[in-house]
Write a structure and sequence with these properties.
Elements: E1 3-5, H1 12-24, E2 33-35, H2 57-66, H3 74-87, H4 98-114, H5 120-131, E3 149-150, E4 157-161, H6 166-171, H7 178-189, E5 198-201, E6 208-211, E7 214-217, H8 222-239, E8 243-247, H9 249-256, H10 262-265, E9 270-271, E10 277-281, H11 284-288, H12 293-317
Parallel strand pairs: 1-2, 4-5, 4-8, 8-10
Antiparallel strand pairs: 3-5, 6-7, 9-10
Length: 318
């Protein structure tokens, strides 16, 4: 049974070298003992023969953070996940997997500790600054900027949309275009002060197809939603809203971790993994696409009723 002794409790490079060699040699996680403090370089492993392998960059980023967690089994958990990712690289995006969820939560705990030292407002500002340089998926290459969020860290109500549109991409703020103006009107009729709510999107970069001088919105794919779920999870860990409104199917998929049919989910509370309550409704852009005036007015009234219900639930929890 290999015993790996690392230089100290946050020796990421030592862990990475040892884990890579062990995984290439086919050593099972339950066969490894991890130790640290005063050990120096891992020894007795060598460089096994055979082809190398790669794992998602987001795992390595996460591992660098988790190494600083206080849990004594952090090295073993990371090595177990590494071994699984060797054969299933897309597993990193599956937050329904217990190990992936545990490791992500460990990373969130460390980052929440780092950001602001317990000051949620400072932590949120630091999170926004970090997200400005996000390259977790390819969408950053064409978008003008990361469009993060509006609203205070103390918000009890969170609104999650799909992704920024053309005007949001240019302004750097969510929901400022036509859909945002309709949302503002609906919020006002529902008795919700937007300034007190936290407004964000499931995907933080604008995905579009150029048509001449115009940029036409494209629906995010599952892998893009999964990549950006990292940011939404951290937002939720900092804000800890009592109630969250998923505006549309993309937002619902990001929050619930599965494909959602609005018609089947709308009007009923769903408990999220972190214990928060989620209500699913349509995205404001859906209302803008309705040509029939009477139907548009009826759907807007229904949308306002959904928002009002979320407000009432939020107030009931205060």
């Amino acid at each position: 049974m290999p015993t790996i002794t690392l230089a100290h409790g946050e020796d990421f490079e030592g862990w990475r070298r040892a884990a890579r060699a062990l995984a290439k040699a086919g050593v099972r996680p339950d066969e490894v003992v991890w130790r640290w403090e005063g050990g120096g370089e891992p020894s007795g492993l060598g460089e096994p023969a055979g082809t190398g392998f790669s794992v998602p960059r987001q795992f390595l980023e996460m591992a660098q953070t988790v190494i600083r967690h206080a849990s004594p089994d952090r090295f073993g958990r990371l090595y177990t996940l590494l071994c699984r990712l060797k054969d299933q690289p897309r597993l990193i995006d599956d937050r329904s997997d217990p190990l992936v969820r545990t490791v992500e939560d460990m990373a969130l705990e460390v980052r929440a500790r780092d950001w602001g030292g317990g000051d949620a407002g400072a932590a949120l500002a630091a999170l926004k600054d970090e997200a400005a340089g996000c390259t977790r998926c390819h969408l950053y290459r064409r978008a003008s900027r990361t469009v993060f969020s509006d609203g205070p860290a103390s918000a009890r109500l969170m609104l999650v949309g799909e992704q920024p549109g053309d005007q949001e991409d240019l302004a750097g703020r969510p929901f400022v275009g036509p859909a945002g103006q309709l949302l503002d009107r609906a919020l006002a009729e529902a008795g919700i002060d937007r300034a007190r709510a936290y407004v964000t999107n499931a995907v933080k970069h604008f995905k579009f197809e150029p048509r001449g001088s115009r940029r036409i919105h494209q629906k995010p794919e599952a892998r893009e939603i999964a990549a950006c779920r990292w940011w939404l999870s951290q937002e939720r860990a900092l804000i800890r809203p009592a109630v969250t409104v998923a505006l549309g199917a993309t937002a619902a998929q990001s929050l619930l971790g599965r494909t959602v049919t609005i018609g089947r989910t709308r009007g009923m509370p769903v408990t999220l993994e972190d214990g928060g309550e989620c209500w699913v409704t349509v995205h404001p852009s859906f209302l803008l696409r309705i040509d029939d005036r009477d139907r548009a007015e009826a759907e807007f009234t229904r949308f306002v009723a959904d928002l009002k219900r979320a407000r009432e639930r939020t107030e009931a929890m205060e």
